[in-house]
Amino acid sequence: MSSEITESAVPPSAESSSAPSRRTFIATTTAVGGAVVAGGLVTGPPAAGAEEVTAADRPPNSRVTVSVNGERHTVAVDNRTSLLDLLREHLGLNGSKKGCNAGACGACTVLVDGRRVNSCLTLAIRLEGAEVTTIEGLADGDQLHPLQQAFVDQDAFQCGYCTPGQIMSGVGCIQEGHAHSAEEIREWMSGNICRCGCYVKIVRAVEQAAGGR
Asked: Distances in Å between the alpha carbon of 166 and those of 3, 200, 208, 210?
């Protein structure tokens, strides 16, 4: 019979039983290290250039000065801010509506230097020194603008969501000289959508205002 004794048959000494095995040591330190990192206890100096990267990630801001309904405003805005968001979020002028936010519905129409624009597609920082007119700036105190009054007279709205853009587009259409006939008005206001279908009455309202210039 072989007298060779296997390693497993040798009883562990007091020293070997108290010392952790290599496998136990690795498992323990890994678990503890993971818990410490997960708990946010391991800290160190920020990586080189971390502050520069954070600053670079911030969107650039600019100051823009515009006149809105006759009142001058100087505002610091993100360079990506649209005129619509400048009006609604910075100046509190919520008459101009955010419909599609893609220039397809006309609900956000305002006048810039007398010309119609979709304010959702117009960058605010490109309007330095411009004159902007919104639906809030049409009436003279309690006296409605002729086109506002015509919309009331012709009952040219239902839900009213598109109405500010329709009126502003109609004002621009008249000022541009494109309101000589119902056909011309429909053509030059075709970018303004009324989901309630009040197109016939809208055209009548523009005709009324154009006739009473």
From this structure: 105, 13, 14, 14
